[in-house]
Each structure stands twice: as C-alpha cells, then as structure tokens.
Design brief:
Largest sheet: 3 strands, antiparallel
Strand order of the largest sheet: 2-1-3
Order of helices and strands: HHEHEEHHHHH
Bound molecules: zinc ion
Shape: elongated
Number of strands: 3
Radius of gyration: 20 Å
Structural class: mainly alpha
Strand content: 5-15%
Length: about 210
C-alpha cells in the first residue's frame, strides 16, 4: 500500500506542463479552464501515457500508466517495460481525464495485487488460512501463470493438503478471469483454449 501512496504523491509533484490530478476529473469548469490554459499556451495536443498493466511491468512504470503529459517524451526512459504515448486533441481533455483516472485505478489494483500476493506467500508457513484468503483476494484482480510457477516451488506447499487448497483457489480465480468482460473481445475459440491451457498448467504445477 505504501508503494501506491508514493505513486499518488509523485503525481501531485508532477513536473511543469503535466496536467495534475489535484481536482476531480468530472468537474466541467476545471476542465474548461485547463483546456483554455493549454490553448492560450499554443498547446493543441496532449499525450496519454500507456504501459502494460500486468505482472511484468515495474512499479515505476505502472505509476505513469494513465498520466496526461504535454510532451510525448515526458515518460521517463526505462529499459524493458514497453510504453506508449498516444496524442489527443486538447479539447477532449474532459473525457481523457476520466479515462486517465480509470487507468490509474487499474495500475493501482495491480500494485495492490502484488502486495497481497507477497503477503500471502510470507504467511503460508505460519497462517495458511489467512494466506489462502489473501491469495483469493489477489486472484480476484488477476492470475498470472509465471507467478503460479514461482508459487508452486514454495517449500510451504510441500504439504499436499495445503497444495490442493491453493490449487483450488487459483483454478477458480483463473476461470473467473476468462468470464470477465475484458476478455470477451477475444475470439471465443482463442479464449477457451487459453483458459483450458491455464487450467492444465495450474493442475500440473500444483499437482
Ligand atoms: Zn519499468
């Protein structure tokens, strides 16, 4: 949680030219004044920054997901994490600030998921019930197979009863992930195959 708070703080200390997150994105007067301010400075385009919100992207880059900046190269250069700046016209700032807030929420959820997973792993040997509850909570945000691979190697899971319960939690969250609407844009066959492949993999890793 501390990391997330840090990310929010760094937003409020945004460098010159960055649209701050200090006021409510739906406030029409604020947005209108901001648009006017940009236009008066001759700025007709702004950029929305994207990174991949998944287990692989570093926390520093996730903190930039959804930020609105005045220059496309305002994203700090980082080796390894893919990112992109997409332009939009200044007068669409209102709708882009709403999008920006939703994107920041998603990045925040990914950071919380990681914290929950770390805590779950640290509690596996001493408080397995709590660890299972936290795994379930993390799994509600997302389940990533490379992390399941790492979890399967955890010495605490040499206990076969605990291993079976962890497997059940992860399988249920994995299946729920594919029922979620953001996967519905994928062709049905690809989605089903990906889901089945993951089910087999989780069963095999935590057998
Ligand atoms: Zn990065």
């Amino acid at each position: 949680m501390a990391k997330l708070a840090d990310a929010r703080d760094s937003k409020s200390r945004a460098p010159e030219g960055v649209c701050g997150f200090d006021s409510h994105p739906r406030h029409p007067m604020t947005t209108a004044l901001r648009i006017l301010g940009h236009l008066l400075r001759g700025q007709t385009r702004l950029w929305l920054l994207y990174t991949n919100v998944n287990w692989r992207t570093c926390e520093g880059c996730l903190a930039w997901h959804g930020r609105i900046v005045a220059r496309p190269d305002d994203f700090p250069p980082h080796n390894g994490c893919p990112h992109e700046a997409r332009p939009f016209p200044v007068w669409k700032l209102g709708e882009y600030r709403e999008l920006s807030a939703r994107m920041a929420d998603r990045a925040g959820a990914e950071l919380r998921r990681r914290a929950l997973l770390r805590e779950a792993r640290s509690l596996l040997p001493t408080d397995p019930e709590r660890a299972l509850a936290l795994l379930d909570e993390a799994g509600a945000v997302n389940v990533y197979l490379p992390e399941v691979e790492a979890l399967a190697r955890d010495p605490s899971l040499s206990d076969s009863a605990l291993r079976a319960r962890v497997r059940a939690v992860l399988l249920s969250r994995w299946k729920a992930k594919f029922a979620h609407d953001r996967y519905e844009r994928q062709p049905e066959l690809a989605r089903t195959e990906q889901e089945r492949w993951g089910v087999r993999r989780i069963e095999e890793l935590l057998a």
